[in-house]
Amino acid sequence: MFVFGDLIVSVAKILDILLGMYKWIIIISALISWVNPDPYNPVVRFLYQVTDPVLRPIRRLIGYRLGPIDISPLIVIIAIIFVQSFLIKTLMKIGLQFGGG
Hints:
- By secondary structure, this protein is mainly alpha-helical.
- The protein is built from 3 helices and no strands.
- The model has no long low-confidence stretch (mean pLDDT 90).
């Protein structure tokens, strides 16, 4: 059973790293949007292609903007923090119960 525990712990760690990276991509994308970037820049295009599928439904749900500020990145970051603090820790505990670690 320790193999199953190690698998769960490994998946939890990888998921935590990916969510942390995505959180930083959301932050960078939000910061870049403040300076009116060149839409043809490959970095800007990558950031928008990666973040827009997640931000678009939230923007539709809350009416895109709350005043002059787009709060959809903040909502996504809060959701990521929740997933990291709840789901990842729960997976780690389950994995450690099965002998992983």
